[in-house]
Design a protein that fits this description.
Layout lengths: L6 E5 L2 E5 L15 E4 L1 H7 L8 H14 L7 E7 L4 E5 L1 H14 L3 H11 L9 E2 L9 E4 L9 H9 L3 E6 L3 H4 L6 H17 L2 E4 L2 H13 L8 E2 L25 E5 L8 H13 L6 E5 L7 H9 L1 H5 L1 E4 L4 H10 L2 E4 L8 H8 L4 E4 L4 H5 L4 E3 L4 H13 L17 H11 L14 E3 L3 E5 L5 H11 L9 E5 L4 E2 L3 E4 L4 E4 L4 E8 L5 E8 L7 E7 L2 E5 L5 E8 L7 E12 L1 H11 L3 E12 L3 H10 L13
Parallel strand pairs: 3-4, 3-7, 7-8, 8-9, 9-10, 11-12, 11-14, 12-13, 14-15, 15-16, 17-23, 18-19
Antiparallel strand pairs: 1-2, 4-5, 5-6, 18-29, 20-23, 21-22, 22-29, 23-28, 24-27, 24-29, 25-26, 25-28
Helix pairs in contact: 1-4, 2-3, 2-16, 5-7, 9-15
């Protein structure tokens, strides 16, 4: 059955969104609640008037839910309240109406003000209510947006501990695979989100086969157990459905033109098209205007300079942004052809959009882009300048560039299929017996619980400044603490390690590789000097041990009995510093937060190597140590 569009009609100056049920029913045996995380959508629309990229995908998946009233009973929408560090439940009916309004009309000033209020913690504008912990058990959470914009991984990990299943949709690993296209801060933010999400996700999807294979490779690279990542095909935006049959495409953009629909950023390779158009114009080729459709992004200083100095090639290049789907549809339908020379993509939505609108497209052959266009597009390497120049010349001189491609050669995917695949194959196994995919640490190697990825040299440098038992004989590697941290009892991560929060039990999960013999797990810790009148309790697999540090820096040595039959041992450590309210207020006044125990590093040693480590630690006695031996 063909999907039916949402209709918009005007009543007393306001847009009334009328739901028309459509789409094929999903085959799904799940009877619990499915929560869709909308946090990044709220964040994005608080800052931008029109959605793009990932947010358009999120909106379209939510629209599919809106179209199928039969799904409403089992679906809820949540967002992360940063100010209170917990999820809120958004009113379903109002939220879905709002989503469809955004798809059709965009975001006006009044609506953007609402998104800004919610993003700042006032969720009453969307009838948001705190979500009780008992609601998680037996539910599913779908993280389908740009989750790295908010630090809600600990809250998701805690929801998982309380019985929720985490289903993660990954778009691409471009910030890690092609870091030259991003700032260092963006790369670090993305990686510090992705690693723990992959550790706690019960099911991982990706938006293409290329992205799926890339995620599976990355999981192996960071030492997590292998997983099967399921590729799903994103649907195609039916832009033609928003345009009346009696409307002419030339009403919006007049003349002969080619289009490139994309955020204007370095990795999209706009600079290549500037050079192609510039050279061909000098050679006297009769070219269509080139229209860049998208907002300005980052790392485009050279492109901006060239456009400014050439007066946008004397008008041969035009830039449009913040277009509605209605306007975008008219541009596609009126274009002579589309171009898409991007260096790397997780999918390539503009390629499928162009094909769906009957617009022939020349696209990059890199990464997942050929999956987005199949046999219906022409592909050229993004670094083949001469190839692009020849193709643009040939297509410009043709009366109808559709002669060069077969637009019917690719079966365009539907959004109903995308949603069906998510719902039907999401994780819903029995709750008992689950455990996260834990980060592995090796025997004889020490790990810094660091905030951001470091090179080995940087890690050694950090360790030499902060660790009490760092020697040239113990290799140093950076370790992302977030992947093994559970719950909201950890403070902000720093370059040297990670703080627990006072009066909260902070869990640390690790997987020790090569632990077929008895071994010891050593934590190098610190506390603030103002922490007087406090108590520290460390638990290993439920057995409590009270710690009395001799100094502000100390080490914990926990003995574990390994097994001859397994290669890995999963461990759960709980660390809790308790102190009175006066001490807590004093620490907060000095440091701005409730610091507990600072965990600098992890070191796993064979029991037979413990005397050597103890001797080394004693030699560095400027900072005392407290040793604990846990029961077997």
């Amino acid at each position: 059955m063909l999907d039916q569009p949402i209709r918009a009609s005007k009543i007393d100056g306001a847009d009334e969104i009328v739901c028309v049920s459509g789409g094929e029913e999903v085959v799904n045996e799940f009877t619990g609640v499915s929560y869709f995380d909308c946090t990044d959508l709220v964040f994005y629309l608080a800052h931008h008037k029109m959605p793009s990229g990932i947010q358009r995908v999120t909106l379209q998946l939510l629209k599919e839910i809106f179209d199928r009233i039969s799904l409403w009973a089992g679906v809820e929408f949540i967002a992360f309240d940063k100010s209170r560090q917990r999820f809120v439940n958004i009113d379903k009916s109002d939220w879905l109406m709002l989503i469809n309004h955004v798809i059709i009309c965009g975001v006006d000033d009044n609506l953007q003000a609402k998104f800004q209020s919610a993003n700042n913690g006032d969720w009453s504008v969307f009838k948001g209510r705190p979500l009780d912990d008992d609601r998680w058990r037996g539910s599913r959470i779908f993280v389908i947006g740009a989750g790295w914009v908010t630090d809600c991984v600990p809250a998701l990990a805690e929801a998982r501990e309380l019985g929720a299943f985490i289903n993660l949709l990954v778009y691409d690993l471009i910030p890690l695979r092609r870091p030259e296209f991003f700032t260092m801060g963006t790369r670090a933010q993305f990686e510090s989100w992705l690693k723990p999400m992959l550790a706690i996700a019960d099911k991982v999807f990706a938006i293409s086969k290329h992205a799926s294979n890339d995620v599976e490779s990355f999981v192996r690279e960071i030492g997590l157990p292998s997983i099967n990542v399921e590729p799903i095909k994103l649907g195609t935006f039916d832009l033609n459905a928003t345009v009346g049959a009696d409307e002419e495409a030339t009403d919006f953009v007049v003349g002969d033109y080619a289009i490139f629909v994309s955020t204007i950023e370095a990795r999209k390779n706009h600079i290549l098209l500037f050079r192609v158009w510039s050279d061909l114009l000098r050679e006297g080729v009769d070219l269509p205007r080139l229209i860049f459709v998208g907002r300005m992004g980052w790392n485009i200083e050279e492109l901006q300079r060239n456009l400014e100095q050439s007066n946008q090639l004397d008008g041969a290049i035009e830039i449009l942004n913040d277009l509605t789907d209605f306007e975008l549809s008219k541009i596609y339908r009126g274009a002579k052809f589309a171009v898409y020379p991007s260096w790397c993509e997780g999918w390539g939505l503009p390629v499928t959009e162009a094909i769906a609108a009957g617009c022939p497209v020349i696209a990059s052959d890199a990464t997942a882009i050929p999956e987005a266009g199949g046999a219906a597009a022409k592909y050229i390497s993004p670094d083949d300048y001469e190839g692009w120049k020849d193709a643009v010349r040939q297509w410009s001189e043709s009366k109808d560039p559709r002669e060069f491609v077969d637009l019917d050669a690719f079966e365009l995917p539907k959004w109903s299929d995308s949603l069906n695949q998510l719902l039907a194959t999401a994780e819903m196994n029995p709750i008992e017996g689950r455990s996260p995919r834990l980060p592995s640490i090796e025997l004889g190697r020490e790990y810094v619980l660091s905030h951001a990825p470091h090179s080995r040299a940087q890690s050694r440098a950090i360790a030499s400044e902060t660790l009490t038992h760092m020697t040239s004989g113990i290799p140093m590697w950076a370790f992302d603490a977030q992947a093994g941290r559970v719950g909201r009892s950890w403070g902000e991560r720093e370059t040297w390690g990670s703080w627990t929060l006072a009066n909260r039990k902070a869990d640390l999960l690790v997987n020790v590789a090569g632990s077929d013999k008895d071994f010891c797990l050593i934590l190098n810790c610190q506390i603030v000097s103002e922490a007087v009148g406090f108590k520290i309790v460390v638990s290993l697999d439920g057995i409590d041990h009270e710690v009395v540090p001799m100094n502000t820096s100390f080490s914990l040595c926990l003995q574990v009995s390994g097994s001859e039959s397994v290669d890995h041992t999963d461990l759960r450590l709980s660390i809790m510093l308790t102190c009175g309210q006066n001490q807590l207020r004093h620490i907060k006044s000095v440091y701005g937060r409730a610091l507990g125990v600072g965990v600098r590093s992890l070191l796993a040693l064979k029991t037979t190597d413990l005397p050597r480590w103890a001797q080394l630690s004693t030699q560095l006695s400027a900072k005392g140590s407290a040793l604990i031996l846990a029961d077997d």
